[in-house]
Write a structure and sequence with these properties.
about 180 residues; alpha/beta; 2 domains; two-stranded antiparallel sheet; 8 strands; about 40% helix
């Protein structure tokens, strides 16, 4: 069995404008994705939640990644959207995925923020490693990629990098299965 675990924010969708607008409401100024990562967890959570619930319509699909996911699905991969979004935003998340036309088999979301994103996502990836022969992960956060590479057994972890000025996507292999 084959499975592709695909991150949502920053991988399948560009959420930067939704984050900027949410930052305006919370902080009174636009916030970049880079700046968001430097904020306290509580502030970051407030901004992300507002981006998801109020400004989701500003999120744009990353077309190249959407096409890659569709190709994987047509090639027989089970598609799992693996997002650090909280379960409380499931309705908005499912709406976004429908709007951008992503077909998927499962949507895995967090129940709480009690552990770091990279640890939680790696635990999920490891659970799929036990039940699938081929595991592919698409992820845009380098810290998550590095942690998964060190702590998974057979997953192919692919770093999806955006170049903001060119608005294009690149997929780089960072690990081959052992």
């Amino acid at each position: 069995m084959r499975v592709a675990l695909v991150d949502l924010d920053g991988t399948l969708v560009d959420e930067s404008e939704a984050i900027a607008r949410a930052g305006m409401e919370v902080l009174g100024r636009r916030v970049s994705k880079a700046e968001l990562r430097t904020l306290s967890r509580a502030l970051k959570t407030r901004i992300y939640d507002l981006a998801i619930t109020k400004f989701s319509g500003l999120m744009k699909p990353n077309e190249e990644v959407v096409r890659l996911v569709d190709t994987l699905r047509r090639s027989g991969f089970k598609i799992v959207i693996l997002t650090a979004r909280l379960e409380s935003t499931r309705r908005e998340t499912e709406s976004l995925l429908a709007r951008i036309g992503v077909k998927y088999d499962e949507l895995v979301m967090r129940e709480s923020l009690d552990i770091k994103d990279e640890v939680w996502k790696t635990q999920v990836v490891r659970s799929y490693e036990r039940t699938h022969d081929i595991v592919i992960v698409l992820e845009d956060k380098w810290d998550n990629v590095e942690y998964m590479v060190r702590n998974t057994q057979k997953a192919w972890v692919l770093f999806v990098r955006s170049t903001p000025k060119e608005a294009r996507r690149e997929v780089l292999t960072t690990q081959n299965p052992r």
